Amino acid sequence: MKQSVVVVDSFTAEKFKGNPAAVCVLEESRDERWMQQVAREMNLSETAFVQHTEDGYRLRWFTPVEEVDLCGHATLAAAHVLWEAGHVGRTNSISFFTRSGLLTASRDGEWIELDFPADYGKTVTEIPELKEALRIPIQHVSLGGFDVLVETDRDESVRECRPDMKKLCTLPVSQRGVIVTSHAAEGSSYDFVSRAFFPLIGIEEDPVTGSAHCLLGTYWREKLGKDDLIGYQASARGGFVRVHVRGERVLLGGQAVTVMRGELL
Fold first, then answer.
1. Which Pfam family, giving just one, matches this sequence (predicted)?
2. Which of 46, 113, 151, 205 is catalytic?
3. Which residues pair with 51 in a beta bridge?
4. Residue 54 DSSP class
């Protein structure tokens, strides 16, 4: 049976920027082995598999090497595809049932807003291995539910960071990866800048990581005293994430653009 697949660039309004994700809207159930094989074949940071249920859509995310518990950019891509293909009316919100519970998506003009769980990090003393792996000044370290957050001294340090990926894989923590962040440079149109590295799950650098902003949002809200923030992820592709923290939830806003449609034979 043929299976449609759509590639979407998320957290951007321009093709070939943001973070690409593949989306498969399933007409019938598929097993995990098949999903993992498709994700490996697509070889993007995430491939999303969506299947209609009575109350919404079941959503699963796979990297080329494993299934993950939470992914922002592939959720954004999945919502974009469901609206674009007419599976859901453009004025209707979408309920996704996932390994991280119920997530919702709604439209705000040309933007898509995702309702995700907030991630409040716990401050830890400096991890010596981090300094060796990142080779940038470290001002603060927090452990979130998914990632290690490292604040550095300035925007340029984030952009110039060239981690030792082998050392990142041997950190004495159980988190999936490391987020490097700093306050935005003076005069920027955004509040903070970040980059994200996940070599343990087969992604050396993720272009734009929605789920990381569940932690980045709570961190910078406390530091800056602002509920509404704009983050810029300064990968080679780059992308913007609007963040609104409201207690135990975080609203993540982004744009998306379709770049490819095809069929798996």
1. PhzC-PhzF
2. 46
3. 26, 58
4. S
Determine the average pLDDT of the residues in 214-219: 98
To the nearest 10°, report the CA torsion of 254, 46, 129, 146. Answer: 70
Q: Where are the beta strands (DSSP E) in the chain?
A: 3-10, 19-26, 46-52, 57-62, 67-68, 94-98, 101-108, 111-117, 122-123, 140-143, 147-151, 177-183, 192-198, 203-206, 228-233, 239-246, 249-254, 256-264
CB atoms within 10 A of CB 65: 13
Whole-angstrom distance, CA of residue 228 vs CA of residue 242: 8
Whether 3-111+253-264 and 122-247 share one fold: the answer is: yes
Structure tokens at 265: 């034979």
Residue 137: φ, ψ to 5°: -60, 140
Write down the pTM of the prediction.
0.95
What is the domain partition of the chain in residue ranges? 3-111+253-264, 122-247
Average per-residue pLDDT in the chain? Answer: 96
* 122-247: CATH topology: Diaminopimelate Epimerase; Chain A, domain 1 (3.10.310)
DSSP string, 160-177: H----HHHHTT-SS-SSE
Inter-residue contact 113 to 88 (CB < 8 Å): no
Residue 74 pLDDT > 80: yes
**Would you state the structure tokens that stand for residue 52, as one six-digit string?**
């209609």
248 in active site:
no
CA pseudo-torsion sign 63, 215, 194, 238: positive
The Cα–Cα gap between 239 and 70 comes to 19
Write down the CATH number for the domain with range 3-111+253-264. 3.10.310.10
Q: What is the pLDDT of residues 158-206, one digit of tens each?
A: 999 999 999 999 999 888 999 999 999 999 999 999 999 999 998 999 9
